[in-house]
Design a protein that fits this description.
This protein is an alpha/beta fold and about 220 residues long. Helices cover about 25% and strands about 25% of the residues. Bound molecules: 1-O-phosphono-alpha-D-ribofuranose and guanine. InterPro entries: Nucleoside_phosphorylase_d, Nucleoside_phosphorylase_sf, Purine_phosphorylase, Purine_phosphorylase-2_CS.
């Protein structure tokens, strides 16, 4: 990492404490709503929401279609927190800032993180509008050293050298497939490999061909 930026444990804790003192919800699940999925948060019951600009330490959303709001509430009886809008590196945020909310959620007791995003499909058989469940990823930024985990390690958040072989939970992936079958939309859902690039430009034709040959099924700009 070339940036010397660091965020101390206290800063994450301050934000987590502020949120916990401003909501009665104690979510175990966090959902990041990508482009086009913000309306999911509007369906939560017993809602309480905060504009990112009112939350101490939180970065700000600058992308159209990302409301910039943290919504707490119940989804099918489960307490959860939804990000209506995420932070991207192409907006000018450091990678540490793009991932800031995740560590805050961890400190609030969240155990399951569901990430969603808009992406470009490269796989044969993956049509615009289909849903791809991420089974593995290629982090092109990480491969060249641009990683939010670079810098001094905070052991309270995890080990210095985290294993990545099981980072997308198999049980949750199977559950999602099962639910798609029950809903009669299994034909629109498949598993695949996601690649993260910096954006904000979409890929050239040559880049898309290269990614496809490398085994990438969908490409996007979310970390
Ligand atoms: O759902 P999000 O994160 O916005 O994902 C994708 O959609 C936007 C481009 O259309 C980019 O922000 C890209 O990252
Ligand atoms: N990089 C990238 N991000 C996207 N977000 C939505 N579509 C795309 C795409 O085709 N490429």
């Amino acid at each position: 990492m070339h940036s010397k930026e660091q965020i101390g444990h206290d800063e994450y804790q301050n934000t987590a404490d502020w949120l916990m003192s401003h909501t009665k919800h104690r979510p175990l699940v966090a959902i990041i709503c990508g482009s086009g999925l913000g309306m999911l948060a509007d369906t939560l019951k017993c809602q309480g929401s905060f504009d990112y600009s009112d939350i101490p330490g939180f970065p700000q959303s600058t992308v159209q279609g990302h409301a910039g709001r943290l919504v707490f509430g119940e989804l099918k009886g489960k307490s959860c927190v939804c990000m209506q809008g995420r932070f991207h590196m192409y907006e000018g945020h450091s990678l540490l800032k793009t991932t800031f909310p995740i560590r805050v959620f961890k400190l609030m007791g969240v155990e399951t993180l569901i990430v969603t995003n808009a992406a470009g499909s490269l796989a044969d058989g993956l049509q615009p509008g289909d849903i791809m469940i991420i089974k593995d990823h290629i982090n092109f930024l990480g491969l060249v050293g641009l990683n939010p985990l670079s810098g001094p390690n905070d052991d309270k958040f995890g080990p210095r050298f985290p294993a990545m072989s099981g980072c997308y939970d198999k049980g949750l992936r199977s559950l999602m497939m099962e639910i798609a079958k029950q809903m009669g939309v299994a034909g629109l859902v498949q598993e695949g490999v996601y690649a993260m690039v910096g954006g904000p430009n979409f890929e050239t034709i040559a880049e898309a061909k290269l990614l496809h040959r490398l085994g990438v099924d969908a490409v996007g700009m979310m970390y």
